[in-house]
Specification:
By secondary structure, the chain is of the alpha+beta class. Helices cover 28% and strands 21% of the residues.
């Protein structure tokens, strides 16, 4: 009904001469309403300038995805033969026809585009009045009733028939601001309520690790080596957003207390995006955790802290700018870890797909990409009542590896906070189909009707996520969440990469096809616990893969064995 009504309105507008150039328009994107909390408050001034991003259709997205699976699937003759930047661009660069069609459309309407971060993107600055005509729409000012945030957006936009086949999306016309959520369950003091002394403890793991998780605990728990890495082309990129700062003095203190075998002068580099800064005088929980458990676990692996500011207009734009910055680099990082995410329901399918395909580009170049699953069980952390389970994003993207959390050491069990579930945007990928089928068979009628049984399921893996000891502004503070387990898992893969590169092999790159096949032997299966939410007990952990802990927790030596190194 929305699309049909807008098409009729488009034809009426044409008859009235509203668009600058008369041509039949077609609805390109529409939403039925603004997100919860937002309400229209009036029309913006017609001279207000909008900064819009135009994403052109990539030349062969399907071909890139096919190639990604070809180079990441064990047994393939091309396994781990990662693509160069130029080879990826052959799949992603818009065709000359698309460039000509979109630029001609903009030129005819008196708009000059400038190049974006990659060849897919163009940037335009357009007054509201001209944008209304260009897109045959009516922009409004929307205000969030709780936060007071405002944004100029439309519920739909249309483009000419001659342009539509060449256009992916125009951002952020129908995409409303959404804050990235840190995957932090708590900053807490005191003993771990999940301690269990009735089971045998993994060899070498001190009982104190149940109350205070340190690098030494994690090394014992997952057989992580302390040997310094030596391969300088093996790098870690760490995402910082939402004023998540990291302090070099706190890192020095952390290493001095918990990694006495490392030089306390070991540090990290910083790269700013969208006006980001790293204010070391205001070290945050998230930034401190992420840096200390990458630099402090992936011994001597070069680490870059990407700090994203707000000049781009919101956290989703920051995600876009970061991944496109990494894509534009001649050399991509071998590991990329992010402990932030969004409620999937607040991210439109077009921008979610665009971001997901961008991660596929990095994966095809040999980058292992990690995202935390979230800390709200089967909910998305947005608050309010939920009548069905609510997934998170980018956890639903099939081209990233999603990390959940466990608790305890005797035995490890699923952490109740560990988010997991099934995407409502992305279908289940082939590499995961057997694992999902087996779990659903075991689950039976439990939670029937509360989740999308055909969706991409997450997490893929997990690691300990409670009571990490972190130095924040000079004080050791216990921190819990998948924000802890995610950089830890990323660090383990960085150390695996070091061994691979030292053996003359290529890095792990996109992990998931390996993880769900030959890589399953590298995990400790977690079979106890669940992730409650939405008034239910959530999903129960089970033998094999489950949507609480994924395939389980890693063992470094088992990874080496699975890779035969």
């Amino acid at each position: 009904m929305v699309a049909a009504g807008l098409l009729a309105f488009s034809l009426f507008s044409l008859a009235c001469g509203a668009p600058l150039v008369s041509e039949r328009f077609h609805v390109h994107d529409a939403r039925s309403a603004a997100p919860p909390g937002y309400a229209a408050s009036g029309a913006p001034h017609p001279d207000t300038v909008l900064n819009l991003r135009v994403a052109l259709k990539q030349s062969d997205t399907a071909g890139l995805v096919d190639k990604l699976y070809e180079v990441s699937t064990p047994g393939s003759q091309s396994y781990r033969k990662w693509l160069s930047k130029a080879e990826v661009e052959k799949y992603t660069a818009p065709s000359s026809e698309s460039l000509a069609a979109v630029n001609d459309w903009l030129d005819r309407n008196g708009i000059k585009a400038t190049p974006g971060a990659t060849s897919q993107w163009l940037n335009i600055e357009v007054p509201v009045a001209k944008a209304n005509a260009l897109l045959n729409t009516e922009f409004s000012v929307y205000e969030h009733q709780e936060t007071g945030d405002s944004a100029i957006r439309s519920l739909a936009y249309s483009v000419p028939a001659s342009v539509r086949p060449h256009l992916d999306l125009i951002y952020p016309v129908t995409t409303f601001p959404v804050k990235a959520k840190r995957a932090l369950s708590s900053v807490h003091l005191g003993s771990n309520p999940f301690r269990n002394t009735t089971h045998s403890r993994r060899a070498g793991v001190d009982p104190s690790c149940d109350d205070a998780m340190t690098p030494a605990c994690l090394q014992a728990l997952y057989s992580i080596p302390t040997t310094p890495a030596k391969q300088q082309f093996n790098t870690i990129a760490v995402t910082s957003i939402e004023s998540s700062f990291a302090s070099t003095s706190d890192l020095k203190s952390f290493l001095g207390q918990f990694r006495t075998d490392m030089s306390s002068g070991t540090t990290f580099s910083v790269k700013a995006i969208d006006g980001g800064v790293n204010d070391e005088t205001q070290a945050s929980v998230e930034g401190s955790l992420d840096i200390q458990y990458t630099v402090g676990m992936a011994t001597n692996v070069p680490t870059t802290f990407f700090t994203i500011g707000s000049s781009s207009g919101g956290d989703l734009a920051g995600f876009l700018d970061l991944v496109n910055t990494l894509i534009a680099q001649d050399t991509a990082p071998t590991v990329f870890t992010t402990s932030f995410g969004f409620p999937e329901a607040l991210v439109s399918a077009d921008i979610a797909t665009n971001l997901c395909n961008a991660y596929a580009q990095l994966g095809a170049r040999g980058t292992s990409i990690f995202f935390s699953s979230g800390d709200s069980g089967v909910d998305d952390g947005e608050g309010g009542d939920c009548t069905t389970f609510r997934p998170t994003f980018p956890a639903g993207c099939p081209f990233v590896t999603v990390v959940g959390a466990t608790q305890g050491t005797a035995p490890e069990t699923a952490a109740a906070l560990s988010s997991g579930g099934f995407s409502n945007i992305f279908p289940a990928p082939q590499y995961q189909s057997d694992a999902i089928s087996s779990y659903l068979s075991t689950l039976g009628s439990t939670n029937a009707g509360l989740f999308n049984t055909s969706g991409r399921a997450y997490p893929d893996v997990s690691a300990s996520g409670l009571s990490y000891q972190v130095v924040i502004n000079g004080t050791v503070t216990p921190v819990s969440g998948t924000s802890a387990s995610t950089p830890l898992f990323a660090s383990i893969i960085a150390l695996v990469n070091d061994r691979l590169l030292a053996s003359g092999e290529t890095p792990m790159g996109f992990l998931n096809p390996f993880l769900y096949t030959t890589g399953q032997s590298a995990f400790n299966d977690i079979t106890e616990g669940n992730n409650p939410g939405c008034g239910t007990d959530g999903f129960p952990a089970a033998a094999g893969w489950d949507p609480v802990t994924g395939l389980g927790t890693p063992d470094f030596n088992k990874f080496l064995s699975a890779l035969r190194i």
